[in-house]
Structure of Cytochrome c oxidase assembly protein COX20, mitochondrial:
Amino acid sequence: MAGEGDSEPRKSFKLLGFLDVQSVPCSRESVLYGSVGSLVTGLGYFLATSRVRRSCDFAVGGFICTTLGYWFYCRYNLAQQRIRQRMLKEAVRNKILYEGSHLDPARKQTDNERSDS
């Protein structure tokens, strides 16, 4: 049956011969949003002016601007997410390492609360 137990790896789609859309983060979404931006920009300019060649120029410009804009937005959010993951991973490792020892910050707080009473 098709779809069940497919062991064949999927062929990657390379845009312009070098950008592997499947493995590069944010590339797929950027190209999709860029094509929608191109359609909206070109069609909008054509409906406003009825100039075909100029609307195609605007469509290409809309594709480039939308693709690059979303690419940078997505990569920035991806970098922020990786930083948060790294910080969380370090916090969990420290919690596991120091839990129950004399270096445990939670234990120091309870010891200070006991001495204040």
User: Anything to note?
Assistant: The chain is about 70% helix and 5% strand. The chain has a mean pLDDT of 82. Residues 26 and 104 are 40 Å apart (CA to CA).
